[in-house]
Write a structure and sequence with these properties.
The protein is of the alpha/beta class and 241 residues long. The chain has helices spanning 15-19, 23-26, 52-61, 76-87, 106-121, 124-135, 138-143, 146-158, 164-173, 200-209, 224-227, 229-240, and strands at 5-8, 32-34, 69-74, 92-98, 187-192, 214-218. It has one domain (5-106, 164-240): 3-Layer(aba) Sandwich (Rossmann fold). This is Pimeloyl-ACP methyl ester carboxylesterase.
Length: 241
């Protein structure tokens, strides 16, 4: 498999927020490329609804003239990665998909609806508490010292990307059921055992829908970069290697 890797982040995040512990390690042995979606990082917010095709094309374009590469997708980034593989089969040589889904189920839709309500209300403290309950697993949250929890809540409240609502809207509209059967590259799908945003069953359904996909699972919630970065890196490197 090619040594280059492109990163596709999740909704309401950024590449640095979702992959920061991974980037230095993965970059030791391969070129790593990325771009933030509209409204995240330094990328300006879009003027209208986001398109999965557009995000897939942006992610592929971030690799510049590197001819082939694998794509590491996380959460919404899994759908972006799948669409990239289907739209650019001559360039995408492999997929690693973590905490992904074919389409949002009713539980996820209820959670994203509440997320958007809190965004609209503008209470950053309440929004941060809700986001924390979504992104970390219950065992991890229960074990967090009070000081760490308060620090994380403050960080979340201060770093909400301006394009979060646009990206959540896309999560609610995503449906890659017509794409998954057309994926023709080696694929590893990684579930997150204690995920409270995307159910592990939804991620398993994504794996089952991709021909020949391998399956692995992390003992974490929706934020493996926080809860299980070492094991996440190990799974990625073993697959790409």
């Amino acid at each position: 498999m090619t040594s280059a890797l492109v990163l596709a982040h999740g909704a309401g995040g950024s590449v640095r927020a979702n992959f920061s512990p991974l980037i230095p390690v993965l970059s030791r042995t391969r070129k790593v490329f990325w771009v933030d979606y509209p409204g995240s990082g330094s990328t300006p917010r879009a003027g209208g609804p986001l398109s999965l095709d557009d995000l897939a094309d942006r992610v592929v374009a971030s690799a510049g003239d590197t001819p082939t590469f694998a794509v590491l997708g996380y959460s919404l980034g899994c759908a972006v990665a799948v669409r990239a593989a289907v739209r650019h089969p001559e360039r995408v040589t492999g997929l690693v998909l973590t905490s992904g889904f074919v389409r949002a189920d009713d539980e996820t839709r209820a959670r994203t609806a509440r997320w958007r309500q809190l965004l609209a209300a503008g209470d950053r403290k309440e929004l941060a508490r809700y986001q924390l309950s979504l992104v970390v697993g219950e065992p991890f949250e229960r074990a967090m010292p009070a000081e760490q929890r308060e620090g994380m809540l403050e960080l979340i409240a201060l770093t909400v990307p301006p394009g979060t609502d646009d990206q959540i809207d896309l999560v609610e509209r995503v449906d890659v059921s017509g794409d998954v059967g057309r994926v023709a590259v080696p694929t590893l799908v990684i579930g997150t055992k204690h995920d409270r945003l995307i159910s592990p069953a939804s991620t398993r359904a994504l794996a089952d829908a991709i021909p020949g996909a391998r399956w692995a699972e992390l003992d974490s919630g929706h934020a493996p970069s926080l809860e299980a970065p070492t094991e996440w890196i190990r799974l990625i490197e073993e697959f790409l290697g």
